[in-house]
Structures are given as structure tokens and as C-alpha cells.
Task: structure prediction
Amino acid sequence: MDHVSCLAFSRDGKIIASGSYDTTIRLWDVDTGLQIGPVLNGHTHWIYAIGFSSDGRRLASGSEDKTIRLWNVETGFPIGSPLEGHTAPVISIAFLSYGKLIISGALDGTIRVWDIETGQQIGDPFVHNASVSAVAFS
Result:
């Protein structure tokens, strides 16, 4: 495992997800400190952002490879194809509380909203005049 670039807790506080510069995601048991399940592979470059859905069953990750990937936490397998649209590294990501949408921010200065059921971007991106290093739903 290489440099860890991002961490996220599951909502129930039982699992930590880590994303790293070796392009992998690992899940960790908070109580034991041991890795859970297989290493999640799929990105082709560094991982900068990671977040759990509110039910803890899905994970979203953003990468230097300009994509967002969705993961099944129980199996470690990717869900669908990568979400593509950013033209620069994806450095922030968040799930909407009910888990049907995610929002992403990138070094390209855009914020994008995605329907995770269809894998499609919703509407046009919101354009900022600089990189978007943090996003959140409330």
C-alpha cells in the first residue's frame, strides 16, 4: 500500500475506507484494525476522494484518472461503468443522504451531480472559477 490520500467512515462507524496513490481502495474494521475483504481495484491513477452511501452498502471514489467509480462494499466489486465527464482529477465526492445521487468536484472547476442508478450526469455542470476541493449535501 502506498501513500493514503483519503479516508471515510461508514455512517455506522464500523468501517473505514482508504484510498491511496497505488490506485487501490481498502476497507478496514474499526474495532480490529484489520482489512476487510479484497482490495478494490479499478482506477488507473491516484485516488483523491472517497465516500460511503448513507446505508453503507455503496462507496464512491474519485481519482486522478478523471473518473468516479461506485463499489459494492460487501463484495468489493465495481457497480457499473466509471462515471465520466470531468476533464481533470476528481478531488471531492459526496452522496446525497438518501443515496440516489452523488456530487463531485474536480480540478477542472466543475461540480457535477450524478444519478447512480443510471450512471448519467444530471443537468449541466456548475462551473466555478477554480478547482472544487470540497462538496457536501445537507
